[in-house]
Amino acid sequence: MIKDITYINQEIVSKSDINTEFYNGNDVYIETYGCQMNVNDSEIVSGILVQHGYRIVDDISKSNIVLLNTCSVRDNAEAKIMHRLAHLKAYRKQNKKLIVGILGCMAERLKGKLIGKQDLVSIVIGPDEYRKVPELIEQAQNGESGIAVKLSKVETYSDIIPLRTEGFSAWVSIMRGCDKFCTYCIVPFTRGNERSKPFPIIINEVIDLQKQGIKEVTLLGQNVNSYVDLVNKADFAKLLDEVAKAVPEMRIRYTTSHPYDMTDELIEVMANHQNICKYIHLPVQSGSERILKLMNRHYTPEYYLERIEKIRFMMPYISLSTDIISGFPTENEEDHQQTLYLMEQVRFDGAYMFNYSPREKTKAYKWTDDVSDETKKRRLNEIIDLQNKISKENNKNEIGRIHEVLVEGASKKNKFQWQGRSDTNKVVIFDNANLKYQAGNIVKCKIKDSTSATLFGDVID
Ligand code: 5AD
Ligand code: SF4
Questions:
Q1: Among the bound ligands, the one closest to the CA of 261
Q2: Beta-strand relationship, 99-104 and 216-220
Q3: Is 180 touching ligand 2 by the criterion CB < 6 Å?
Q4: For residues 148 and 114, is the Cβ–Cβ distance under 8 A?
Q5: Beta strand 442-450 pairing with 146-148
Q6: How far apart are CA 321 and CA 450, in angstroms?
Q7: Which of the residues 120, 133, 444, 461 has the least number of beta carbons within 10 Å of its own beta carbon?
Q8: What average pLDDT does the segment 373-388 reach?
Q9: In the chain, where are the structural domains located?
């Protein structure tokens, strides 16, 4: 969700202060679902709207225009939006002028079928057509529905300044789309072909962010390590190397990467720069060679483990997370055991774990979804239980270690206990009763306790 309050140079300013250059009287409320790409896309849409005189607000009751930026990756992500639309009908009763638009992957997948949904939706815009958001809002205000869902081979929104709202960390999208066509995945169909933002534009963007006081950037893409700028002869390893050199004061992260493109050069660049965070999200999906082949993942469990070995050899204290799908078509007990075995071997610090969800248009959709719901559920629970056990044990090993923590703010439970993130992307809670530390500071914390999800530390000077 876009927040109304943003931190700039440690001063709190209301978003309306930075939003009102030529206000056209229209307030827009944007709700974001799904991955970080969608979070950044909502910032891009906000940037486009502000350029056209709109104001972005965080209170639905203050706006006549509601945009839902949606996800299609699993059926339950879409069900959530349908549910939300039913809920939004109540607002329409209070506010007859309310305009509702669907953006993102669901817009691309369902296109015109969304128009008129719940007697509400009059705008449908796919991920490559966000420049048309102001035009389609105007059209909707004149009573006409509008659809814009063409995918582009070139659109990267390179010239748009995203309206960022997330404190001292910023997302920088470096590429869009995906050409991998994993057989279960809808993304290549909803986000189109891979294309990369020009190298010099990314370098300038991170330098600008550093000047604005941002302390951490995450380079974003569906598949960042297949980034390529042929004109400037830069692959992802080169880009990361140059970004790290361009903003030595900033912490640099990236997500998501594909094991197939996790080259030696990339691992070496990570190891060579102190300001590149020692954390990699590297989705494995399954530990079975047979299932990985059916998924069209282009690697074997052996190859994946060899990459992990190389990563750990170069960066022994790195933190690793992954994605796992349980119950892919034809997955049997042996395949499932191989996934558990791979998890034991790697000992990930964290994992996003899902039941397989058939998606129309994908190759796997044509295959029978033959693992029963009951079996899927049981296998997923086994995967989750194992991961929780490993996360807990890994975090226990953190006790006594010192981490550099980027301070985010007060923790949810206790206003004297503040939280931040370690370079290894773990949440660290520490005492800040006298408010000595502020959001955006980097503090050194010695870890004294842990759970499967959180570290607790003391700040040491
Ligand atoms: N069913 C379940 N999980 C999926 N993912 C992608 N497509 C599907 C699907 N059809 C998961 C993958 C991917 C993550 C973003 O979502 O694990 O890495
Ligand atoms: Fe989907 Fe595979 Fe592309 Fe990731 S790499 S977005 S899972 S097709």
A1: 2
A2: unpaired
A3: yes
A4: no
A5: unpaired
A6: 18
A7: 461
A8: 98
A9: 11-148, 169-394, 402-460
Q: Is the pLDDT of residue 400 over 90?
A: yes
The predicted structure's pLDDT at residue 1: 30
CATH topology of domain 402-460: OB fold (Dihydrolipoamide Acetyltransferase, E2P) (2.40.50)
pLDDT band at 20 (very low <50, low <70, confident <90, very high): low
pLDDT value of position 43: 96
Amino acid at 236: F
CATH for the stretch 169-394: 3.80.30.20
Per-residue pLDDT tens for 329-376? 999 999 999 999 999 999 999 999 999 999 999 999 999 999 999 999
Q: Which residues pair with 124 in a beta bridge?
A: 102, 147
In whole numbers, what is the pLDDT of the chain averaged over residues? 93
Residues with Cβ within 8 Å of residue 26, at least 6 apart in sequence: 53, 54, 55, 64, 65, 137
Q: Is the pLDDT of residue 7 over 50?
A: no
Q: 16 C-alpha vs ligand 1 centroid, how far in Å?
A: 37
Q: Go through 438-453 and write b for each residue having 16 or more CB atoms within 10 A of its CB, e for each that does not.
A: ebbbbbebebeebebe
For a pocket test of ligand 2, which of 185, 220, 324 has the largest count of ligand atoms closer than 8 A to its C-beta?
185
Record: fold of 11-148: Rossmann fold (3.40.50)
